[in-house]
Amino acid sequence: MKHLRYLLWGALIALSMQPVYAAIGIDLYQPLYSLEPSGLRGYGFGIWYKPPRFIWNNLSLYFKTDYYRWWVTNTTLYHSTNTISITPVIHYEIKNNSTITPYLEISIGPAYFTKNRLEYRQLGGHVLFQDRIGIGAILGQAQRFSIEIDVLHFSNGALCDSNSGITIPVLLSVGYRFT
Fold first, then answer.
1. Reduced to 3 states, what is the DSSP secondary structure of residue 3?
2. CA distance 107 to 133
3. Which of 47, 65, 140, 152 has its CA 20 to 30 A from that of 106?
4. Calpha distance 165→155 (Å, rounded)
5. Which residues of 57-69 are buried (b: 16+ CB within 10 A; e: fewer)?
6. How many CB atoms lie within 10 A of CB 120?
7. Which domains does the chain have, with CATH numbers?
8. β-strands 117-118, 121-122: how paired?
9. pLDDT range class, residue 6, cuts 50, 70, 90
């Protein structure tokens, strides 16, 4: 217990030493249309961190942890699962002098599913890959709010015999940047 306390204090001190211009934010997710499976519903949220050393003019790299809750409405067997993912995100902004900054994003990383089946789909394992590509805009004078439309896909990359992925071609993401 004593070591845990020292670890927590060390983490707090390290976080307080971060430069003021490091970006930290949250995103909320809502699928607007799902393709595979067709009756998929859900929601999610993400926490992200953009270190200043990975910002180069219009291009940046940041790190994101997401949680999703998925369920299928037309079945009672294997009707729900939870997902946690950790991904690096490549972010490209189209800079201008207005209160709207358009951007493009792409990411790929590991995702853990609590169940390896969803509806009749055999996902092939608990660990899958999350692929995401999106277009969005950062809004406001302080550039703290964002809205984005993503294409989201989960699969095991044909590493297992079964590879019934999950595809969400229209995912709405709304975000807020704290710093």
1. helix
2. 7
3. 140
4. 4
5. eeebebbbebebe
6. 11
7. 20-177 (2.40.160.20)
8. antiparallel
9. low
Whether the CB-CB separation of 43 and 54 falls below 8 Å is answered with no
159 vs 86: CA distance, rounded Å: 19
Structure tokens at 10: 């060390």
Tokens (6 digits) for 4 = 């845990």
Q: Which helix (H) or strand (E) holds 16?
A: helix 2-16
Cα–Cα distance measured from residue 88 to residue 97, given in angstroms and rounded to the nearest whole number: 27
Helix (H, G, I), strand (E, B) or coil at 139: strand
- CA dist 149 and 32 (Å) reads 9
> Mean pLDDT over residues 106-116, rounded?
93
Looking at 18-22, 107-111, 127-131, 149-153, which range is the least confident one?
18-22
23 by DSSP, 3-state: which?
A: strand
Beta strands in the chain (DSSP E): 23-33, 40-50, 55-56, 59-72, 80-93, 100-113, 117-118, 121-122, 127-139, 145-155, 166-177
Q: 71 - beta bridge partners?
A: 41, 80
Q: Which tokens hold the place of 43?
A: 């929601």
Instruction: Give first-to-last CA distance, the chain, whole Å.
Output: 32
Closest CA to 42 of 1, 89, 79, 94: 79
